[in-house]
Amino acid sequence: MTTAPFADRVRHINACFHTYAQMAGMTGRSAAWWNNLALGKSVNPPPPDLIPDMASMLGVPERRIREMIAEEWYGVRPDDSASRRAMALSSDLVMLDDADYEVVEKLTRHLSSLARDRFHRELDEQEQSEAPDSCPASSPTTSDETADGSCP
Known about the structure:
The protein is mostly helical. It folds into two domains: 5-82, 434 Repressor (Amino-terminal Domain), CATH 1.10.260.40; 96-129. The chain is elongated, with a radius of gyration of 27 Å. α2 crosses α3 (31-38) and α4 (51-58) packs across α5 (62-74). It is built from seven helices and no strands.
């Protein structure tokens, strides 16, 4: 999973909404800084005073911007129960209206239900393949079988 949540969000915003020059005009960071960040080149983290403008431009809460900066530049992830996948999606989910969010929620629940069913099916198949089909190979007169030929 990603270790660059801030840069990932910047690439998404650049692909869908703003050029790096527009980002520069909205946040006080140069277009070159935004471009270098998106390309994975080494840049300094944004200073705290720019976080409100960056949060507005990136469409995420200020707290999430601070978390993304902490993770990307300092390797510190907030201690919470949300997975990296959930955190990555959270920035996009907050931009959805209620009707679109409801669609995403239903789709997610449906897909997770399918994944859960597949997991249990595979687990059952594994358990069945590990169980012996019959008594160990032996002659029918061994003590491993009962009179009707079944295992004891």
